[in-house]
Amino acid sequence: MLKGIDPLLTPELLMHLSAMGHGEWVAVVDANFTADFLAQGKPVVRLPGHSLERVSRAVLSVIPLASDVKQPAAFMKVCHSEPSHRTAAQAALVSALAQEGLPEDRVEATERYAFYDKVRQASLIVQSGEATAYGNAIFCKGVIL
């Protein structure tokens, strides 16, 4: 055990997060996401039984979001929905990000296939146990000063 570290962060996950440099992306995806296929050999860490919000909070407790990226956080937009529509999981995520100081306009609602393209560029995929559809997010790591 480590003092001050979220207990959800496994040694494997901490290793991958600390190895990431600024400007690299980490995806937090739901239980139904095609993580292994899109990872293309990059690490996939599984945290079953935990929601998108819970896993995102844990990840963001040890990495800053990029300040030099217009939208350093994104979630997968529900297909054929209004731009303002959010699932309960997405709303909880955006609320958690706002609590951490990230304004809503810096969180992008990304179309499904564009989101898959972003995940292909991610350095790490964390698969949560989120059971609702479209329970996927991606974050750009910033600089620790």
Q: Briefly, what is this?
A:
By secondary structure, the chain is of the alpha/beta class. It is 31% helix and 18% strand.
Could you characterize what this model shows?
With 145 residues, this protein is an alpha/beta fold. The chain is built from five helices and six strands; from the N terminus they run αβαβαβαβαββ. A six-stranded mixed sheet has the order 2-5-1-6-3-4. α4 (88-99) links the parallel β3 (73-76) and β4. α3 packs parallel to α4 (88-99). It is globular, with a radius of gyration of 14 Å. The two termini are 25 Å apart. The mean pLDDT is 96.
Q: Architecture in CATH? A: 3-Layer(aba) Sandwich
CATH class, named Alpha Beta
At CATH level 3, the topology is RbsD-like fold
Given helix and strand content, the structural type is alpha/beta
| Largest sheet descriptor | 6 strands, mixed
CATH superfamily: RbsD-like domain
Helix residue percentage:
25-40%
Key phrases:
145 residues, alpha/beta, RbsD-like fold, six-stranded mixed sheet, 6 strands, globular
Question: What is the topological layout?
Answer:
Layout (H helix, E strand, L loop, with lengths): L10 H9 L5 E5 L5 H5 L4 E4 L4 H9 L12 E4 L11 H12 L7 E4 L1 H10 L2 E5 L8 E4 L5
Parallel strand pairs: 1-5, 2-5, 3-4
Antiparallel strand pairs: 1-6, 3-6
